[in-house]
Amino acid sequence: MSLLSLHDVSLRFGNDPQRPSVLESISLEVGEGEFVTVLGPSGCGKTSLLRLIAGFQESTGGEIVFDGQKVSGPSAERVVVFQQAGLYPWLNLRNNVAFGLKLRRRKVDWRLVEETIDIVGLKGYESYAPYELSGGMQQRAALARALVMSPRLLLMDEPFGALDALTRQRMQEFILELRERLDLTIFFITHDVEEAILLGDRMLIMQAEPGRVTFDEDIRLPRPRSEATTLTPEFQVIRQRALQTLGRVSIAAAGFTDLDTALSLNFDGSSSAREQRA
Amino acid sequence: MKSFLTSRVTSTFLVLAGAVVLWSFVSASHVFPPFAVPSPIAVWHAFISTWTHGYLQKTMGQDIVASLARVTVGFVGAVVLGVPMGLAMAESTIVHRLIDPFLQLGRPVPPLAYIPLFVVWFGLGEFPKVLLILVGTLPVMVISTIGGVRSVPAQRYEVAKSLGARRHQLFTRVTLPSVLPEIFTGMRVGIGVAWGTLVAAELIAASVGLGWLVEQAANQLQTAIVFAAIIVIGLLGFLMELTIRTIERFAIPWRGRA
User: Fold this and answer.
1) How confident is the model over B218-229, as pLDDT tens digits?
2) What homologous superfamily is domain A4-77+151-277 in, according to CATH?
3) Are the Cβ atoms of A103 and B173 closer than 8 angstroms?
4) N or C: which end of chain A has fewer CB within 10 A?
5) What global pTM score does this model have?
6) Contact B254 A129 (CB under 8 A)
7) Which CATH architecture has domain B39-251?
8) What b/e string do you get for B130-160 counting C-beta neighbours within 10 Å, with b at 16 or more?
9) Which sequence spans correspond to the domains of chain B?
């Protein structure tokens, strides 16, 4: 049995049937230990999908089952790492990482906290305030705060989206390393094609208006992977296919039929296509 | 940072010194009669004499102590009552609906308008004066606390929920620390309101205090004493604000940085 299953999940805001649903009949299964990346243009509903799985929001149709139980709210078994680290400024790094453990009645296992801080490479910074840490370090701290809970599923919503290119690359390498060391199930949202391919065991591509999954394939690149993997021909083939799929996605979203025009569009900013339509 | 601080202190000092020089010229030019614009030296003498010999049997020190005590008690009362009120109103719709109409109706009323009522109800003692300060400052504290709760970034709650926080934990571990900066802003605004209300209260019914001193001296055209008392009120208000700011720096070092 898979860890997470979505059956015909849909989401719409308001009662106007003219408005396209945010998400329409999404069904998928995520197995234990899988690293699933979700790629899509902005507005395709990928963050909404993650929020449904996290339990922040309820779907308007279908059901989400996690570990045999219907998802009805947030839980520390499905911890979210956001694009903004969102550390609490009144707590130092150590206490930020221990935040989730302190919410439980049990005594805080400080050794586990120290170990987790070490794992994300922040040993020596335990007493630093969040605003004394760089963006990349803050994001590592947010990751530690999630990892310390030993979640069954890690939900990551464009976690490196706010970082500069170099730091993002370092964080991608770091996640790859972490994956080799720890047994994690990850649902990872991004709008970066290369990131989606490099990190995932499996990649989903989403289409907008209405939001649905149009591509779902395993990425059979050998592990361990690293930045160098992006230079291999195999990687480039997958990248090309992803871009093509996204091209098709953009055509559909923009009402285009001409593939060349669509492929010339920036895959993320289908804005240029929207302008032409208007 | 250091040179910035120094230069700011220097510039403040220079501006004030310049104002005193200008003031001396204006008073020395006798464009206005001395009872309207006394010279800085006359004001200094008035201060010293009020400090050592007193005015109408009350020394400046007694006036300061009386006024400081009233302001402090009224202001602290407003904080102690206003913050929980604001929190309760922000957390509960029912509480908000119960209290908000009074808050909205009471807010535009100048505290001075309550004085006759308070005198009728509570007499001329300390209680009505302190209560007046409390009533004047309370809305500031309530409103800034509510504003603080409303402006907590949604993500702070989602992070906590995702880590398994229950409802009461969201309040104690996210709302309370998050709202601190706005409470301090409210306190800094509130201390000014408190002083304003105090002087108004002492104008009517008092026998000691800086507001009372201003009123009595003005009645006898002792303008130099009026000037001295006004400057002392300004300095005390400024010092109290400075104290709050210093506490703030230790209590919420993350302000403006996160």
Assistant:
1) 999 999 999 999
2) P-loop containing nucleotide triphosphate hydrolases (3.40.50.300)
3) yes
4) C
5) 0.86
6) yes
7) Orthogonal Bundle (1.10)
8) bbbbbbbbbbbbbbbbbbbbeebeeebbbbb
9) 1-30, 39-251
